[in-house]
Specification:
alpha/beta; Rossmann fold; 3 domains; 17 helices; 12 strands; globular
Length: about 425
Amino acid sequence: MAHNARGGARMSDYILAIDDSPTVLSVIETVLAGMGHRTVVARDHEPALARAREAGGAPRAILLDEAIPGRDAAELCQRLATDPTLARVPVILMTTRGQADDVEARFAHFANLVDSIGKPFSPEALQAVVSRVAGGGASPPPGAWREALSASTEAGLAEARAFAALGYALAGDLDAIAMGQVFELLSEQRQTGVLRVVNTASHARIELVFRGGRVDFAAAVGVAEDLMLGRFVVETGEAGPEKLAAVLAERGRARTPPPLFGADLMARGIISRDALVRALTRQTSELAYETLRWTSGFFHFRRDAEPGAAARDAALQIPVDRMLLEGLRRVDEWRVIEREIATFDEVFVRDESKIDELPRGTLTRDELAVLDEIDGRRSVRDVVRRLRLGSFDVSRIFFRLRRARLIRPRLPPTAS
């Protein structure tokens, strides 16, 4: 169920590259042409937006230079994210080496930014990153398969070397390697580092921090609201949604970057340290479960990467085997649920006669809460948002109510 997917414009078979250096643009065009991609280039932001609109469709990906003089790449990312034509296009940031911490801080909240590459980069490194985000490009001409076959081993080694040069100890595509296997490998080898998982269908990304084979922390951009920390803080019982909403509004008005949300709540005396750890543990586990469902996208693991202050403070040390046991069970349940609920945009109506026949006490409190929200207008997504429950829990309840014939899909209106 692609509940995070957003509507978007038709995708075209080209890559948009934005860089003020003609040399860099020439290298990009040459490398991408060898991959079967057509490249549209621009040396500034405004010409790039104009050329994308003139191309007749959104590009497969955007390569964006982070350091064009007099231009703010973060501002452009924001503009792209709100553009009806370009909002779904994944952005690869081209950065200056040694600026990783600053770039991460400035761009971490942009859902459309899915990966980065340091300059100067090798052709192999550019090929590896673009292939992960945008695929291999157009089909090669007849007869080209022989050359590709003879070079396949060398290409594989080149890609491996490129990822190693970028500091990645492990990388792959989600349609080829299940995330459960990646978790098991990192756990068995007691690895320490950061695992980044990108969903190219929804442009969401989740990062999990491993230490000694256990999970210390997780952060995400572009995921559903029910996976944000606030929901899990409310579940601890120490803070209500109204109080959290007031804090979020105040943080939104701040003139300087506010502290981390969890630390801010503790500093205000709204929650205790124990409650914050419980909320972070729940959120981290739920984010890991979410990655297990993704089949479109890619991942990479950077060994011994700097985890950041939030991960160091959390130090959750969640065992992977326990996480996998629950996560894989949920994956199996999702497959069953999706037979009845194809999308979170589906709308259901109540069967009042069958509901009235139920003996008192048949339904649980959560089932009654979901049933009360079903009115023939609200989608499953709307109900999740209004109840501040997890999408998995709400979907299970919809599934049970559907199987019990207490609700049914709303039929589209017929034309007269």
